[in-house]
Design brief:
By secondary structure, the chain is mostly helical. The protein is 69% helix and 0% strand. It has one domain: Ferritin, core subunit, four-helix bundle (Ferritin), CATH 1.20.1260. It binds fe (ii) ion (2 copies).
């Protein structure tokens, strides 16, 4: 899947991709846990909370996927859940390498889980997508700013997976929202961005010390997440390229170089949720993906 050769237009394709990732991880082996990790207090507490969030058996999501009656999707969801559980395992081992325990629960995770349980598959995926989009920026900050080789490696591994999770959910949401009238779809995604903003502000507040130590001030974290969200919205709404690109390409523009380096409030066209990606198949779209503006998952 990392090579982008597999189609992502079907969930059977996604299943094969998740299975390929299992093989890739097996060949890659484990990080060097014995090297130990330097975990300053704020980062350790932050990682403990993300570890709780990654943990869970995903039974609720799997049940809803089963009820949806798409066997290919249900199979892919099981592999997705396993990948999230692997994140929890990696973070637990990383905390252990830094001499820190895991925690049993955190209020933010309890709220999140309860909210998801109340919802049907479509809305659950929208809530889950909030976590994925926030996680993209968080793990990139950890991978680039921690200054510890083991912390950086673990965060980079998780980040690579999260970059595939967004287009995976995106494909399902495009199908699920496609049955709604256009105006309602836009309303749903506007509401999603408002929820995302609220969640991002909470994360920025809750993890502010760690983010600051990682070189990412709260306001920039919020701005970067919201900027990336306009691309997610563009990918979910119809006639967008989410399901038509290989995983790396479909994902790259959600993390543009200026999102990494930019500061302050995003440009209005991006903050407003207006698709800024050229139409698929156009020379401009191809050029944008080839220009280096886009950061692909092969880093
Ligand atoms: Fe994860
Ligand atoms: Fe994820």
């Amino acid at each position: 899947m990392s090579g982008g050769s597999m189609s992502v237009t079907t969930f059977a394709g996604w299943t094969r991709g998740f299975e390929a990732e299992i093989e890739r991880r097996r060949a890659q082996g484990e990080p060097d846990w014995a090297a130990g990790a330097s975990l300053p207090g704020p980062l350790a507490r932050s990682l403990q909370r993300f570890q709780v969030g990654e943990d869970g058996d995903g039974a609720n999501l799997i049940r809803k996927a089963d009820e949806a009656g798409d066997r290919d999707y249900a199979a892919a969801v099981r592999l997705f859940v396993a990948e999230e559980q692997n994140h929890a395992r990696l973070l637990a081992l990383l905390l252990g390498a830094g001499g820190m325990p895991t925690i049993a629960a955190h209020w933010s995770d309890s709220v999140f889980v309860r909210l998801r349980r109340l919802l049907g598959l479509r809305l659950e995926l929208l809530v889950l997508m909030i976590a994925e989009v926030v996680a993209l920026r968080y793990y990139r900050a950890v991978s680039e700013g921690a200054g510890d080789p083991l912390v950086g490696e673990v965060a980079a591994r998780i980040l690579a997976d999260e970059r595939r999770h967004v287009p995976f959910h995106c494909l399902r949401l495009r199908e699920a929202l496609g049955v709604l009238p256009g105006a309602l779809r836009v309303l749903v995604m506007t509401g999603w961005r408002l929820l995302l903003l609220g969640a991002t502000v909470v994360v920025a507040w809750d993890h502010g010390s760690a983010l600051r130590d990682l070189g990412l001030p709260r306001r920039r974290f919020i701005a970067d997440v919201m900027r990336s969200s306009s691309d997610v919205v563009a990918d979910i709404l119809p006639k967008s390229p989410c399901g038509e690109l290989p995983p790396g390409a479909g994902l790259g523009s959600w993390e543009t170089t200026d999102a990494v380096e930019g500061a302050g409030v995003p440009a209005p066209d991006r903050a407003g949720g207006v698709p800024r990606r050229p139409a698929v198949g156009t020379a401009a779209a191809h050029g944008a993906r080839q220009s280096g503006r886009v950061r692909l998952s092969d880093r």
